C-alpha cells in the first residue's frame, strides 16, 4: 500500500499516458532499445569500429531521458503552482458567494417573520 503522494503521482502518470499515448510510446521504445554496443556485440571488426566511434551513446541517451524527465517535473511543478493559486482564488470567491447567499436567505425569511409577529 502506498501513501497518498505515491498514488497521486501514479494517477498523474496514468492520466498523462491516456492523454498523450504517442509520447509514452516513443519514450518506452527509446528506453527499451538496447545500447549500440549491445546490438553489435562480437559480430565483426566493423562493429567494433562503430563502438569506438560512439563510446558515449548509452550515456548520451540516458542523460537525454533525464533532461526530459527534469523538464516534465518542472512543467508539473509550474502547473501545480498555477492550480494552487487558482484554487485559492476560487475558495475566496466561494466564501463571498456563500455569505451573499446566506444574507439573501435571511432577507427572504425576514418578511415572513415580521408578518407572523404582527398576526400574533
What does this structure look like?
87% of the residues lie in helices and 0% in strands. The chain has 120 residues and is an all-alpha fold. It has a domain at 59-119. It is rod-shaped.
Q: How many helix segments? A: 5
Largest beta sheet, briefly? none
What is Rg? 30 Å
Structural class: mainly alpha
Give the total of beta strands: 0
- Please state the average pLDDT score: 77
The arrangement of helices and strands along the chain is HHHHH
Helix proportion of residues, in percent?
Answer: over 70%
Separation of termini? 65 Å
Strand content: under 5%
Taken from the alpha-carbon principal axes, the silhouette is rod-shaped
Flag low-confidence runs.
Answer: none
Quick description:
The chain is built from five helices and no strands. With 120 residues, it is mainly alpha-helical. The termini are far apart.
Provide key terms for this protein.
mainly alpha, 5 helices, 87% helix
Write the layout of secondary structure elements.
Blueprint: H1 4-19, H2 21-32, H3 36-39, H4 45-53, H5 57-119
Amino acid at each position: 500500500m502506498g501513501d497518498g503522494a505515491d498514488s497521486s503521482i501514479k494517477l498523474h502518470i496514468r492520466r498523462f499516458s491516456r492523454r498523450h499515448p504517442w509520447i509514452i510510446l516513443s519514450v518506452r521504445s527509446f528506453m527499451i532499445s538496447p545500447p549500440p554496443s549491445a546490438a553489435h556485440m562480437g559480430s565483426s571488426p566493423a562493429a567494433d569500429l562503430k563502438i569506438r566511434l560512439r563510446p558515449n551513446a548509452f550515456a548520451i541517451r540516458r542523460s537525454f531521458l533525464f533532461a526530459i524527465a527534469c523538464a516534465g517535473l518542472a512543467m508539473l511543478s509550474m502547473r501545480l503552482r498555477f492550480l494552487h493559486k487558482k484554487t485559492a482564488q476560487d475558495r475566496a470567491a466561494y466564501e463571498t458567494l456563500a455569505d451573499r447567499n446566506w444574507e439573501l436567505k435571511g432577507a427572504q425569511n425576514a418578511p415572513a417573520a415580521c408578518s407572523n409577529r404582527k398576526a400574533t
